[in-house]
Design brief:
Number of helices: 13
Bound molecules: protoporphyrin IX containing FE
CATH topology: Methane Monooxygenase Hydroxylase, Chain G, domain 1
Strand content: under 5%
Number of strands: 0
Helix content: 55-70%
Structural class: mainly alpha
Radius of gyration: 22 Å
CATH class: Mainly Alpha
Order of helices and strands: HHHHHHHHHHHHH
Distance between the termini: 70 Å
Shape: globular
Largest sheet: none
Number of domains: 1
Length: 275
């Protein structure tokens, strides 16, 4: 018998009664999803790139939801770990653009008409991540009226304070200031000078406020990687479709460039200029 044979001796070979690898992972479902773009060679790349991104987004939502709970409980060490993980997930998604960039405009054109009006613009998980972080545009929930569960998840999210709101509540509590986060809302967080002043106290004396200082840097790190995702997306889009309108109906690159201006945690960026 070969070495390999010896080494694998004892491996369980019969899974008639037990759960196997594929059963645990639901691979029968994941790997047999129909590919509606199979008329073109590059259709599979396009589909898998989106499907894998959505799987990672599912984990992002799981981590951010738990991080928010931990911040509310004042339990910052586990929250830091989760926020770091989210930043690493975005880093991973950023590298994934390198694979998609191998697709040329000619290759994309072979299946683009078959996409109809579908677009990442209608990704409810992406929207949920933005809502969780605090970039809320309530009018976009309309895109999901035809699917009750995502629609409800988005509406429920807007009834809760965002991750940033709970972070600035903690900031105010620990510095003995009045809370400034206001109510949960359907619009994006607007920077408040008083919040920036509180962050400034933290940055001017990290040793005294070490946990808040670490929280601030975890948030900045997360937004940094998120911004890179947006930048990689718009650059890839420009490389593939130029300045054509998006399949989702927006102006395309012009819309995505506008989104580069979003500031998730504005006071944390602005305080830097005040130090
Ligand atoms: C060939 C590749 C791609 C092209 C040409 C493309 C194009 C576009 C365009 C033009 C938009 C603006 C909305 C519209 O009018 O359609 C958009 C939005 C979006 N796309 Fe892509 N995209 C590509 C790949 C991806 C991938 C791999 C993902 C990963 C999930 C993704 C996720 C999104 C999201 C989440 C939005 C909404 C962004 C926002 O509202 O801020 N896209 N895309």
């Amino acid at each position: 018998m070969s070495d390999f044979g010896e080494a694998s001796k004892g491996a369980k070979m019969d899974f008639a009664r037990d759960k196997s690898y594929g059963d645990y992972l639901g691979l029968d479902k994941i790997l047999t999803v129909e590919n509606p773009l199979d008329m073109a060679h590059d259709g599979l790349l396009f589909i898998i790139q989106h499907q894998t991104s959505e799987l990672w987004m599912k984990l992002v939502i799981h981590e951010l939801t738990a991080a928010r709970r931990a911040i509310v409980a004042g339990d910052l060490q586990p929250a830091f770990k989760m926020l770091s993980r989210v930043a690493r997930i975005f880093e991973q998604l950023n590298s994934a653009w390198d694979v998609l960039r191998t697709m040329t405009p000619s290759e994309y054109t072979a299946f683009r008409p078959h996409l109809g009006a579908s677009s990442g613009f209608q990704s409810y998980q992406y929207r949920l991540i933005e809502y969780l972080l605090g970039n809320r545009n309530g009018s976009l929930t309309k895109l999901h009226e035809h699917t009750p569960a995502p629609h409800e998840a988005l509406r429920n999210e807007m009834a809760q304070p965002s991750l940033y709101q709970v972070a600035i509540d903690l900031l105010a509590d620990r510095l003995g200031a009045a809370r400034l986060s206001g109510d949960p809302g359907q619009t994006a967080w607007q920077a408040l000078p008083q919040v920036q002043d509180l962050w400034q106290k933290v940055y001017e004396d990290p040793a005294t406020h070490w946990e808040l200082y670490e929280l601030a840097e975890k948030l900045v790190d997360l937004e940094d990687y998120f911004r890179r995702w947006r930048f990689n997306h718009v650059t890839t889009v420009e490389r593939i479709i130029g300045f054509k309108r998006g399949t989702g109906g927006t102006s395309g690159v012009a819309y995505l460039r506008k989104m580069l201006e979003v500031e998730l945690f504005p006071e944390l960026w602005h305080v830097r200029g005040a130090l």
